[in-house]
Amino acid sequence: MIELKKFRRQYNYAFIDEDTKKEIRRKLLKAICIPGYQVPYSSPEMPVSRGWGTGALHISLAIIGKGDTYKVIDQGDDASVNACNIRSFVEKTAECKTTFDTGKASVIQTRHRVPEEELTEDQIIVFQVPDPEPLRQVEPYTKITRQMHAEGDYAKMWVALYESYVQTGDISKGPVLVNDRYIMSPSPIQAWDIPNLNNSRCLNLFGAGREKRIYAVPPYTKVEPLEFEDVKFNINDFNGAACKRSGEKVAFLEEIFNEDGKTSYHMVNDTNYLDKIMDNNRPKQWNNKYLVKKRKELNN
Amino acid sequence: MGYVAVRGGVEAIANAAHLVEFYRLRDNTPPIEIKQLKAQFRLAIDKIMGEGGLYAPEYGAIALKQNEGDVFEAAFVMRAYRATLSRKFYSETIDTENMFVKRRISASFKDIPGGQILGATRDYSQRMLNIELAEENETVVREFLEKFNIDIDLKEIKKYGRITGILRHLGFLKPFAKEEDTSLVDVTRDAVKFPAPRSGRLQMLARAETGGIMAIGYSSIRGLGGVHPTIGELRVGLVKIYVKDRTGRKRYLGKVEVTEAETINNELEVGQNGKNVPYMSIGYGLCFGHNETKAISMGILDRAMRDPEGRGVAHDQEYVLYHTDGVESMGFVNHLKLPHYAGFSAGLSTMRKAVKRKEEEDQKLNPSLAEV
Amino acid sequence: MEEGKDWLLKVEGLTKIYGNPSEDTVSRTGPLFNSNICPKTGAVVACADINLTLHSGEVLGIVGESGSGKSTLVKLLYFDQESTSGAAYLNDYEDGEQDVLKISNQQKRHLKNHKMGMVYQNPRDGLNFRFSSGGNIAEKLLMADNYHVGQIREKATALLTSTEVPVARMDESPKNFSGGMQQRVQISKAIANNPPLLFLDEVTTGLDVSVQAKVLDMIRRLQKDMGISMIVVSHDLSVIRMLTDRTMVMKNGRIVEQGLTDQILQDPQHSYTQLLVSSLL
Question: A37 pairs with which residues across the strands?
Answer without folding.
Answer: none
